[in-house]
Design brief:
The protein is α+β, with helices and mostly antiparallel strands. Helix content is about 25%, strand content about 25%. It has a single domain, classed as 60s Ribosomal Protein L30, Chain: A (2-Layer Sandwich).
Length: about 140
């Protein structure tokens, strides 16, 4: 069994409505969340990740990372694995750089796995991010 340096499950970026329930920010509703203030959504999402999952890293940053993403759904409704790409995935990877885990996010291999359905949990849609940090590309 492979060991991961980081293995977390988090809720994706959300559209926060005042009177309605929240909605996942995806490529299917891009026009709505872009108008609603992309920066506000991104900052709120990254603040939640910093507070709960990705604290500031005090060591020497890693030069390379392999990052796996899997969308987890508690229901049987399919979602394309790339649906969260322009928001959740990129912003989570950017945060690894901001928090000092990696030198630069251009040195990452990103792998998106098929969505898993009927996953137990209380959040209808969540994302598993697994990260393998390496000092250099040749490290095992």
């Amino acid at each position: 069994m492979e060991e991961w340096d980081i293995d977390i499950v988090f809720a994706p970026a959300m559209l926060r409505y005042k009177k309605k329930s929240d909605e996942v920010a995806s490529t299917n509703n891009l026009s709505r969340w872009w108008k609603q203030n992309k920066t506000k959504i991104k900052n709120c999402f990254q603040d939640e990740l910093k507070e709960w999952y990705i604290p500031e890293y005090k060591g020497e940053p890693y030069r390379w990372a392999e990052i796996h993403f899997t969308i987890l759904r508690t229901n049987k409704r399919k979602m394309d694995s790339d649906s969260l790409g322009p928001s959740t995935y990129k912003w989570a990877i950017d945060l690894l750089t901001k928090q000092g885990y990696i030198v630069d996010d251009d040195q990452c291999r990103v792998i998106m796995h098929p969505t898993e359905l009927d996953v137990p949990g209380t959040i209808e849609t969540s994302v598993r991010m697994q990260v393998k940090l390496k000092k250099d590309l040749n490290e095992q």
